[in-house]
Amino acid sequence: MAVKRYRVAIVALPIMLTVGILAWFFYFAIGESDAQTTNLHAAVVSEPEADTATPQAAAGPVAIGPLGRLSIARQSFARGGLGSKALVTFTLRNNNSFAIKDPEILCAFRSNDGYTTERRRKIADTVNGKSRKTYPYTFIGFVNVKASKAKCSLVTASRVVS
Description:
The chain contains 1 helix and 8 strands. By secondary structure, it is of the alpha+beta class. It has 2 domains: about 1-30; about 35-45 and about 65-160, Immunoglobulin-like (Sandwich), CATH 2.60.40. Strands 1, 4, 5, 6 and 8 form a 5-stranded antiparallel β-sheet that branches. A 3-stranded antiparallel β-sheet has the order 2-3-7, with no helix packed on it.
């Protein structure tokens, strides 16, 4: 009689643990995660308008210095881990005659329900002048698992002083 109860306990315990873990995952919804989410309209960068009275009144960023001829030539987005790690493969193209170091990129990850998650990443590397460099599967940060599209842009870079 006691052996029969142990057999039931051995079978029932893993089933109860699995059901409990699944219930816990469903209880804590993805919408309540601690990821930095913003409305999609807040992530849109405004471009400078042509009819402004003075050049100082332009709202958009102006490319000055090493960013003027530095660009992201290609980019792609993949997931890692359990789907919450953002892995971006991108190619930096430096058309300057000098090398740049420590480029920083800003990536916005958009989901179909209208939210974006923004992550910044500083790349501790140097890109020589008149060259390009590819960074495969670079970990940008943790994002919402519903994010389906990514768009990255350059924020800052420093000129290498020789």
